[in-house]
């Protein structure tokens, strides 16, 4: 499994369940209780040994350990923590470790996980309790899923970071199942905005629904993969680009248009008649221009600090901006640039 680490680097991870047995009946899940499928269970020391062996053989550069729920969430969490503890302390494993927090995990368990892992996560699966009841009727959103994320943030806020693995607290993520129970993009992104703003999550993942045979949802249609893509783009606008929920270009039904990047849709509505002056705009204004990302905005600011004025699309291209995307929405020294770059 290729995964992006908190710094953005992509590495091969072992993504493994401690057990694929589960006593919950989530309607979309291949491991749901009652589904006729083979189950596999590791002992904590077996899973720890597997991680170390694959690491020594250079097959993986990290591990993401989760589990089906067997014997209750608390007992399952303890077994996951035992595997992590063996890895870190008995086997001296120094690599990247992502630990899943089980539904209803207690504060002492969460603290222990935060002392062992580089990242912890809880899958909310749905944007609100009503949608969750249609997706995973045995899960309680506030008490079992949101509360552990709130506890992580409380620990980060109130306890010294040197208690964490390598002297820093782990980052936090979540995941949503998209398109299984009629939820809108507006519902999903409202929850994502709350998670970024209040609980300081590093990232929200979106998993487009795909029907699994032998589950109650086996007859449902898979979600359009473009929907997942647009949700990621919008979530990055909320997290990194200073956009607010009110600025998202939702359709009447509360979904993002599939045929256009949400940043471009916003720019068409707001910048076509009010272009951004590249030589005067602040970072917040620059980040709203299509074709200008986080690095591009910083490069523009750095070029201006050095005393240079940016006068052409070629100047922008030289510092890492996508000039043809930006051209319709910018001014260079008060002038609209030509729509096409010169070929000569």
Can you characterise this structure?
With 344 residues, this protein is an alpha/beta fold. The protein has two domains: 2-247, Aldolase class I (TIM Barrel); 271-331. It contains twelve helices and ten strands. The protein has helices spanning 44-56, 73-90, 107-116, 129-135, 141-158, 185-198, 225-240, 262-270, 283-286, 294-305, 313-318, 323-326, and strands at 2-4, 10-12, 14-17, 62-66, 96-100, 119-121, 171-178, 203-208, 276-277, 330-331. The strands form three sheets. The chain has a six-stranded parallel β-sheet. α6 (185-198) runs parallel beside α7. The longest helix has 18 residues, at 73-90. The protein is globular. The mean pLDDT is 96.
Based on the model shown, name its key terms.
single chain; about 350 residues; alpha/beta; TIM Barrel; 2 domains
Short description:
With 344 residues, this protein is α/β, with parallel strands linked by helices. The chain is 38% helix and 12% strand. The protein has 2 domains: 2-247, Aldolase class I (TIM Barrel, Alpha-Beta Barrel), CATH 3.20.20.70; 271-331.
Query: How many beta strands in the DSSP annotation?
Result: 10
| Tally of separate helices | 12
Question: What level of helicity do the residues show?
Answer: 25-40%
CATH architectural name of the largest domain: Alpha-Beta Barrel
Q: Indicate how many domains the architecture comprises.
A: 2
Q: Kindly identify the CATH topology of the largest domain.
A: TIM Barrel
* Largest sheet composition: 6 strands, parallel
Major sheet strand order? 3-4-5-6-7-8
- Rg result: 23 Å
The average pLDDT is: 96
Shape descriptor reads globular
- Under CATH at level 1, the class of the largest domain stands as Alpha Beta
């Amino acid at each position: 499994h290729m995964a992006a680490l908190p710094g953005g680097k992509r590495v091969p991870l072992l993504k493994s369940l401690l057990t694929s047995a589960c006593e919950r009946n989530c309607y979309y899940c291949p491991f749901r209780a009652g589904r006729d499928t083979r189950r596999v269970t590791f002992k904590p020391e077996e899973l720890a040994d597997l991680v170390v062996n694959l690491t020594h053989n250079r097959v993986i550069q990290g591990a993401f350990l989760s589990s089906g729920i067997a014997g209750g969430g608390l007992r399952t969490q303890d077994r996951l923590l035992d595997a992590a503890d063996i890895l870190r302390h008995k086997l001296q494993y120094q690599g990247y470790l992502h630990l899943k927090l089980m539904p209803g995990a207690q504060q002492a368990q969460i603290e222990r996980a935060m002392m062992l892992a580089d990242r912890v996560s809880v899958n909310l699966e749905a944007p609100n309790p009503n949608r969750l009841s249609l997706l995973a009727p045995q899960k309680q959103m506030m008490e079992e899923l949101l509360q552990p994320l709130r506890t992580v943030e409380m620990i980060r806020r109130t306890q010294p970071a040197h208690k964490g693995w390598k002297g820093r607290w782990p980052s936090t993520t979540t995941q949503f199942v998209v398109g299984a129970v009629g939820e809108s993009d507006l519902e999903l992104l409202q929850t994502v905005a709350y998670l970024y703003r209040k609980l300081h999550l590093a990232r929200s993942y979106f998993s487009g629904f795909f029907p699994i045979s032998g589950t109650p949802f086996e007859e449902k249609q898979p979600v359009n993969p473009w929907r997942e893509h647009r949700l990621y783009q919008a979530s990055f606008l909320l997290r990194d680009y200073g956009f607010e929920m009110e600025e998202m270009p939702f359709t009447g039904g509360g979904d993002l248009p599939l045929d256009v990047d949400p940043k471009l849709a916003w720019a068409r509505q707001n910048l076509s008649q009010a272009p951004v002056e590249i030589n005067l705009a602040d970072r917040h204004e620059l980040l709203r221009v299509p074709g200008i990302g986080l690095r591009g905005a910083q490069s523009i600011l750095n070029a201006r600090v050095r005393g240079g004025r940016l006068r052409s699309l070629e100047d922008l291209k030289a510092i890492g901006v996508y000039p043809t995307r930006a051209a319709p929405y910018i001014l260079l020294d008060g002038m609209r640039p030509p729509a096409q770059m010169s070929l000569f």
